[in-house]
Amino acid sequence: xxxxxxxxxxxxxxxxxxxxxxxxxxxxxxxxxxxxxxxxxxxxxxxxxxxxxxxxxxxxxxxxxxxxxxxxxxxxxxxxxxxxxxxxxxxxxxxxxxxxxxxxxxxxxxxxxxxxxxxxxxxxxxxxxxxxxxxxxxxxxxxxxxxxxxxxxxxxxxxxxxxxxxxxxxxxxxxxxxxxxxxxxxxxxxxxxxx
Length: 195
What we know:
The protein is an all-alpha fold.
C-alpha cells in the first residue's frame, strides 16, 4: 500500500479534521455515482478503494493500531470504506440484491454507512418507506455527510429522482419503468372492456 498520507494529499502532522476534510473531498471526487456510464468508472472505483484504504489505515494508526469504525473513528466517516461495505456496494451496483441483503444482515457494524446501504438496498427493492427510514437514520448519525443527505432529500421528494449505484433511469435510456408498464396494462385492460 502507498503511504496513506500521500494518497490523501496531507502531511503526517495534519490534524484529524484536515485528514477528514481531505478524505471527504476525495470521496466526492471519486464516488462511483459520479462515474455512471463513464469509461473512467473502473479507474475511479480503484482510486476510491485506495482512498478508503488510506483513510482506514490513518484511523488505525491514530487509534493506536486498534480497529477503525465505531471504536476509533466514530462519527468521522462519510464512507466507511471497509472491505465489507465495499463488497456490499459492489453487490448493489451489480443488482445482486440477495447477496447484498445477506451481507448486510451478517454485518455487526451498524454504523451510518450500514444504514445508508440498507436504504439503498430497500430503494432498489422498491421498499420506499424503509429506504426513507434508513436514509434518515444514516443522515442523523452523520449529518455532515452529503451523500446521505442527498439520498434522504430525494426520498422526501418522492424518491423518483434518486437512482443509487448505477440504476439506469428509464427516461434517460428511452425505456420505461414498472409504473409505466402498469399504467399501460391498466389502460389496455380498460380499452378491452369498453368494446
